[in-house]
User: What shape does this take?
Amino acid sequence: MIAPGKMDIRKTLRLHKRSFLVTGLVAALLGAVAGVVICYFRQAPQLIYSLKDIKVDKTIQVSFTRPVQSQLVYQLSPALAGKWQVTRNWLGITAITFYPRTRLVPGSSYSLAVGRVAPLLATKPTVARLVIPVSVEKPPAIKDFTPAGGAANVQVDTAITVRLAAANRGLRRLSLAGDVPLAAATPTGADDITFSWKLAKPLSQGTAYHLELSDLNQVDPVKRALLAVVFTTVPEPRVTGATDQNYFYPGNTITVSFDQDMVQTDADFRLNMPGSGRWLDARDYQFTPSGLQPGHDYPYTILAGSKALNGGVTESDHGYKISTPGVAYVTGLSPGGYGWNITVPINVSFDQPVDHGSAQAAFHLSPSAAGGFGWSGNTMTFYPGGLAYQTTYQASLDAGVQSLYGLPTNQTYATSFSTTYRIITLNVPQYYQAYTESCEEASLRMALALYGVATNDYDILQNVGYDPRPRDTATNTWDNPYLMFVGDVNGAQDTTGYGVFAPPIAHAAQLYGRGATVASGVSAGYIAQQIYDGHPVIAWGYSKNPVADSWNVPGGGTVATYKGEHVRVIYGVAGSPDNIVGFYIHDPIFGNLYWTPSQLMANMNIFGNTSNQTVTVY
Assistant: This one.
């Protein structure tokens, strides 16, 4: 049996042993817990985020799986207006949240950089820098736009419409700009998919319009511009032809033509006349009037609103007119003036068809001339059998010529004209004188050639009479030019050589077997008559610087002469002997000449009958 004192000691020892055991266990447990906690707060935290296709009205948030130290850094790029909020607990930062000041731009992208991420008990960051992509939900795509780009024949009251691929939900703020007259730049939409713009007024026909669709929610100019279209409205149907005619005759038709296929209706026309119409085809309308009266105007109208098959309409009335023929009148009466050929036709032109017999009966020509009538269209022609030369005629037409479809002429018409002069030229060749003073011989040679007589100046000189000697200046004596050639044919005039007058030349012509008539003091009419009779005329005159002269002749007496004596042959005449226009002359020095009667007479009459001498060869 154990004494009571020993039993207490044992009990005490057991109690102490138990206490030490409990204490050890607690200490061990606390150490284990502390180890776990230290390990937890030293481990790298995970970043939790969902930043793909975020809603435009949402925040941007990143949270951590365990608190992190306050040395954390973060930045959003590109920068946005707004504010950051940091969420903490008593151990550290648990989340960061960005609150944008305004809605995010649909379809935009950002980068969120988070750095210096360190656990509470870490001595250095476990995440030095992490870039997180942030994307905002995309707006719905444009599915179609009406009218489409490049569209043609668009109706003038067409709706401007955009259809999206999905509900808009405010992601797009559509706006339309361009030259289309819109009631407002912003559209209306009932189902949040289809949006329309109202026109302030109908579009113009045949016009190219430009439209630009923009999304005002977008800041970037490239993203803001959604599309640009050009379209063309339906063209106005044009009148390409419409009968607008004077002198509208029975049986004529009114034809109206358009440049497009039309809706075929008679209501498009207002025709103020009796008759009937029909469409020949989709573009051409024909109307046949009836019962029209002479001398009247009949207007008609193509009405505004005439519609083409493609929807275009005429925008205004188009007025035209037909007129039936009224009083007939002469539009042309010819010839007139001077110098007309003696067979010239006389033309009378009318503005409309007339009765041929009535017109021919109303025609008069004075002086009268035989002839016949012919017609070409509305022109009557009188063909004279032959008019007189150098005669003034008057052609006239009495009033009352009957029109076939209109009213008779109501006035007299007349014209006057003069016929040309007759020109007669004889087949006389041009020869030039062989010697200084042989103009008379050369002229006779030309005249003889007309009759086939071939000779030369020298032979003619011998037949004239030639015994050359110089002028005796002491006694002023020389040979007689009325009897022979005076002086040397190659001499100097009025000193050593002179020439010959008409009688010896006529005698020489006779020696060649031709007739010859000498005349002096003749008129232009006399010379013209010789040409009309077919005979050339050798005529005396002067060449230059005429001076009166005279000398004594053998056998006694004095002969009147002149210095500058010259001879030509006249072979043609323009005009009649009693109304001469001019003469055709061969000059043995100067060649072919054309002189008026006054020029010729002035040359021949310089010294009266002394210079006015002729020989007509026949």
